[in-house]
Amino acid sequence: MAKFTQEYKLQVAKRYINELVSYRDLANQVGVDDSVLRYWVMLVRHHGDQAFVFPYTNYPSAFKLRVIHFITEKNYSIREASAIFHIPDPCMVRRWKKKWEIAGEDALESKEKGPSTMTPNQKKKKIKDHSSNQSVEDMKKELEYLRMENAYLKKLKALVQEEPSPTKSKRK
């Protein structure tokens, strides 16, 4: 689907509001699904010229819960509730509602995303500790075993390539 600018979406939604045209006809002219156009129109009706200006935000769980209760108590659709609460994508609300239905309010809590709490020194130490678990003698034995295995496989491959296949016959 093509990415439309905020200005273009606003212009199309206002065109629907001001002109005598159906959702389907205008959506076909613009090249979007009529449900998308309906959402654009709902946003413009609820938020005017700021309908497509969405500040990036990490919604708190209390806000998510308020939206879900609004949908369930007032019997609004997910799409209309998204427009009323000025949420950029109704799919976000759909995911919130599904999580809430499955696991309750705790599922709406934001997961902390951020840098690792492990410092670079701890990472280096962890790597060193892992390698020091094997003694030098053990590593030498493993290396010798791997070299023998490699030599065996090379000889086997050479033998297989040298043998003529008994099932193949010459064509006449």
TrEMBL record:
Residues 63-115 form the Insertion element IS150 protein InsJ-like helix-turn-helix domain. GO terms for molecular function: sequence-specific DNA binding; transposase activity. GO terms for biological process: DNA transposition. Residues 107-140 are annotated as: Disordered. Pfam families: HTH_28 (PF13518), HTH_Tnp_1 (PF01527). Coiled coil: none annotated. Belongs to the IS150/IS1296 orfA family. This is Transposase-like protein. It comes from Rossellomorea aquimaris.
